[in-house]
Request: fold
Amino acid sequence: MNITEDIKRQILSRTDIVEIVGEAIDLRQKGRNFVGLCPFHNDTHPSMNVNRDLGIYKCFACGAGGDSISFLMNYHRLSYIESMQLLAKRAGIVIPDDSYEKKDKGQASKIEQALNTISAAAVFFHRFLETPPGSIARSFYTKRGFTDSQIKEFMLGYSPDSWDSTINELKKQGFTETALDDAGLIVRNEANTSYYDRFRNRAMFPIQDYLGKVIAFGARQLNPDDKMGKYINSPQTIVYDKSQSLYGLFQAKNDIRSRKFAILVEGYADVISMHQAGFKNTIASSGTALTKEQLDLLYRYCKKIYIAYDSDTAGISAAERALELAKEKGFEVMIVRLPDGEDPDSIVQKHGNKLMNTFLDHAQPFLNFKIDLLEKSGALSTPSGKSEAVRKIIRIISSIPDRLQHDEYIRQLSSLMQISETQLKQVYNEKLVQEKKTRQKQTSKLQSNAIDERKEDEKDNVKTNDRNSKQKSKSFDLLNEEMVLLRIALTDSAAHNLLKDRFEFVKEKFISDDGKRLMSVVLSQSSELLLNNLLHNDEISEEDKDFFTQLSMNEEHPSIQWSRFRNNMPENDLIRFIQDLLYRLEQIQIDNQKEKIGIQQFNVPVERQLELVKKIKELDEKLIKLKKFYEIQ
Reply:
């Protein structure tokens, strides 16, 4: 694939790294940076720093750092090409695809091949929708009220009523049977001699990850006589784990962020109908009951969920399980109660968004929902039933991570159940004590089982930690002034150009060897996208890249003038600032020479002493000239 420097520059200039990293971790602003828990190590204190202006991230605990491309490659395990394709798509930039021929597909990684295959299948199914055989699926979508815009946005399609149409089409495009199998698109026959299409004569709902890549399919029955069931979903594959995917999240994430809550529904059609009705913050679990992994993914975008499941018994049971998991994660949970026999899709299709808004406005907090269900089931009609119900609710309350909420929920429960707070707190405390004992037993057992393994591992860990410590503690012997000059060269294009052109900077003006080498590297690059180019230059060592990233973002400023410089210093002040630093470096060199001469003056003849005094005088005169030189520049 032909990705020129100009295209790369355009892509990165239109990419907000805070958005890229913020889709993976929760970020909050702190000064010029955004901070959050680092996803590359077991972080308990926000160590990840993200700088929007510089377009880079840096963890000051484990050392991970880079730009938007690096983050996609390291966190999402994408290749460089995949990362650039994704960023280009988000930025609305077309990358020329002339050199990406069929032969290149075989050279891609196994995961990349599977993703490319699924993407090609999604395009094939979507286009086949417009053919005469596809009219059956189009009719299905039309009856559901889906517009052409929604069909396009969600890439809806139709899989041909054939055993091998998909196989033949994708093979024609250069994809192998192995890639088709890895993508979950084909099934081996009973004789184990050949493959056939997994999806046949079905309405196709592509499942995308939150970055927009198609990773699987949900396939809806169109023929009532189809013995395969109402829905067939892609199996678990190397790119698809249903427990970690949320349908519609790619389309919904921006609205979820802006509205600060998500609407969770059960089915693909529910999601699309809700989006079409204006509820674009709607998502669904992907062919599975809600999981902890899905909630972890959603927690990046909001802390509040409206659960709008079907009103039947199965839907209510699923809502109960979902709310317990969500409360344990720390979500505020509201339950949307729909009329019997209705689901979100049917509500908006029959009555539009006004009625759905009414149901959302009257959603129940989780305590009210649980107590309503218990009353209807008759569980509160006897003392023993009421006691058991209270303990179940207390269990949910005690699982909420924010312990400050516990007292408030107990007060609410006391009012709703007409039980004194003292009694409820007694039950609550008993539960905490029992949980503590259980945890202690589990911990003791784990420690006992692991003690022998730990002894064996300690030897290896010592070696590994020593190795990591050396890498992490790799430091450079630079002067304060050298650090500042390097930083402004890295982070400000005007300063970089001044050092390179106006001052005709040469590495000899630095005193330390590391400083000379590093500044030579920095000034050998163009000031445009400097940090990005340094980070992706294979000729630059990882230690140097790490140093450049950390120096650019480190909040411990090596100069009292740094804050003044970073506040849009005028060009004249910037020149003065650089001159002061260069003069100081020259002064240090002269002082070092004078110190060496002073040492030589001891125990030498008078004639030699006079010569050395003369050299010191010459150095003093040189310093005066340098000062005047820098003052008039």
The chain has a mean pLDDT of 82. The longest strand covers residues 214-221. The chain has five domains: 5-91, 102-240, 246-362, 371-431, 480-632. The CA atoms of residues 347 and 356 lie 7 Å apart.
